[in-house]
Amino acid sequence: PVLRLLEAQLQDQRRKHEEEMEALRKELNAMEKELHEQQETSLQALQLSPEIQVELGLQQEIIRLTSENMDLKESVEQLEKNERKLKNQMRIYLNRVQDFEASPNLLPADRRPHNSNTQVAVPRKGKYFQGMLEYCKEDEPLLIRNLI
């Protein structure tokens, strides 16, 4: 009984091994075929005139750049989406701060600000800009009004 069980397991393992070997042989044949096709293409490219070689090179570069451009567009879209989300959050927090400043009576007496002209200090990161300002075209009237 034990010997038959071990023999069955061995045959099962042998069958699995043969199936794996067959799959690997097929994969190897497919890779060899692909390599052969690539070699033929390379040989044909070498036999082509220099103008055609340049044109093929340019086509490959255009394909690469187009792919890279699409990746960058996706990245920009994601960043713009994140920017809109953060702007919305900023507006919500700004409204909350303005509501808080407008109605300090809603807080308990020990947490009310002592001065009615209390300004909210916004911590800034260590960036220092000189004369640089980035803004959206739609925000231009608001920016000018605030500057004046």
TrEMBL record:
**Coiled coil start-end:** 3-96
Q: Which UniProt keywords apply?
A: Coiled coil
Q: What name does this protein carry?
A: MYO5B protein
Q: Which domain of life is it from?
A: Eukaryota
The answer to keyword Coiled coil applying to this record is yes
